[in-house]
Amino acid sequence: MKAFSKTEVNKYLHLKLKDWLSDGECISRNFKFDNFVNAFSFMTMIALEAEKMGHHPDWSNVYNTVTIKLNTHDANGITQLDFDLAKYIDNCFQIFM
Amino acid sequence: MKAFSKTEVNKYLHLKLKDWLSDGECISRNFKFDNFVNAFSFMTMIALEAEKMGHHPDWSNVYNTVTIKLNTHDANGITQLDFDLAKYIDNCFQIFM
Amino acid sequence: MKAFSKTEVNKYLHLKLKDWLSDGECISRNFKFDNFVNAFSFMTMIALEAEKMGHHPDWSNVYNTVTIKLNTHDANGITQLDFDLAKYIDNCFQIFM
Amino acid sequence: MKAFSKTEVNKYLHLKLKDWLSDGECISRNFKFDNFVNAFSFMTMIALEAEKMGHHPDWSNVYNTVTIKLNTHDANGITQLDFDLAKYIDNCFQIFM
């Protein structure tokens, strides 16, 4: 799987993943929930998809916040896998809003 | 904790837990989700609360359905603990609707 | 995927899944844990694999016990998918023993 | 709850939490697992206890690794709550070794 250029990544985020940021190496987004229970259940949703995709996030959690960073290690950059997982994550987050 | 009479249980369900049924020994409700991921994340929400309460459900899951039965073993019947957990469960389910 | 005959199922269980029972329609096993936390974490392990396989258990939990039934709906019987998931489940259970 | 001094923290870690490090502000430990499934199930075990304690970790996960930092926000330092959760976490980790 081929890594996208910085321009391609920024264009994609602008069009389809408006809440995600890119530092050129990964794409990331912060999420805030009502409480820890919702935050961890959101993480469970993502864990189930990530394991299915064989593509896992770099993520952290403190109480009601979750920070997710995505990149594709094998491609040494950001690929369609990351965009697909980010879109899935956005859809999960909608459930809690 | 004291078990409620059948009449008390039915009155409470009618007033505050309209989607729950009682067979006199436990209260129960079926839940249906879009998919397994949502069903299992809902279960995770409940697991986190049940462990905190020290009051655990008798529940089953097949793909996108979850069936939950609640009673209070120590009281040999249905108590306020069951009503409280049922209300929590209803609130969690709202998130997925 | 083709369903196995009763004889084939019983032979397979005898050789490779000694703790599982068959009623001809599904294979099943009961699991007991030290507490609810271990039981639910075991369920989380299985949920992650089941979703990946696209093959989900019919399971129930009460506190520290988990009962799992497996069959293949599309084949109207027990298939290699069930044997594979049962083996995975046994391996997960080993972790908690 | 009172925060411990750096000396007290170091002494406690030396005696009872040998695999944890302290930077004076929090105590931390890295964990490595066979795979993502085990890492996330370990996290589920901790989530269930943390929610019960009302004391949540600052943690991150990448595939088969989990990094956990503990401190007590309200006490602006490290308290007995952190030591208790760290001991629980160590016990959970034992299950996967």
Alpha carbon gap, first and last residue of chain A: 33 Å
The neighbouring-strand order within the major sheet of chain A is 1-2-4-3
- Mean pLDDT level of chain A: 97
CATH architectural group of chain A: 2-Layer Sandwich
Shape of chain A: globular
Rg measurement of chain A, Å? 13 Å
Order of helices and strands of chain A: HEEHEEH
Helix content of chain A: 40-55%
Q: Quick one: CATH class of chain A? A: Alpha Beta
Overall strand count of chain A: 4
Alpha plus pi helix count of chain A: 3
What is the oligomeric state here? homotetramer
- The figure for the number of domains of chain A is 1
Largest sheet of chain A, if any?
4 strands, antiparallel
Description:
4 copies of one chain form a homotetramer. Chain A is α+β, with helices and mostly antiparallel strands. Chain A has one domain: Transcriptional coactivator/pterin dehydratase (Gyrase A, domain 2, 2-Layer Sandwich). Chain A is built from 3 helices and 4 strands; from the N terminus they run H-E-E-H-E-E-H. In chain A, strands 1-2-4-3 form a 4-stranded antiparallel sheet, covered by helices on one side. In chain A, a hairpin with a 4-residue loop joins strand 1 and strand 2. Chains in contact: A-B, A-C, A-D, B-C, B-D, C-D. At the A-D interface, helix 2 and strand 3 of A face helix 2 and strand 3 of D. Strand 3 of chain A pairs antiparallel with strand 3 of chain D, so a sheet runs across the interface.
Keywords:
Gyrase A, domain 2, 97 residues, 4 strands, homotetramer, 4-stranded antiparallel beta sheet
